[in-house]
From TrEMBL:
It comes from the Bacteria. One of its GO terms (molecular function) is DNA-binding transcription factor activity. Residues 1-45 form the HTH araC/xylS-type domain. It comes from Myroides albus. GO terms for cellular component: cytosol. This is Helix-turn-helix domain-containing protein. SUPFAM superfamilies: Homeodomain-like. Pfam families: HTH_18 (PF12833). The keyword DNA-binding applies. Keywords: DNA-binding, Transcription, Transcription regulation.
Length: 45
């Protein structure tokens, strides 16, 4: 997942849907639990 965030301009919402999440907030919460950082912070790096 971090690869899509780092290497594409695809919106986080679209990445969340690709990963099976209906709501971006659920994706963000699960992502932070797994990686210790939010998708938005990875994108801003």
């Amino acid at each position: 997942m971090p690869t899509l965030l780092e290497n594409t301009d695809q919106p986080i919402k679209e990445i969340a849907v690709l990963c099976g999440y209906q709501y971006v907030q659920h994706f963000t919460t699960a992502f932070k639990r797994s990686y210790g950082i939010t998708p938005g912070k990875i994108r801003r790096k």
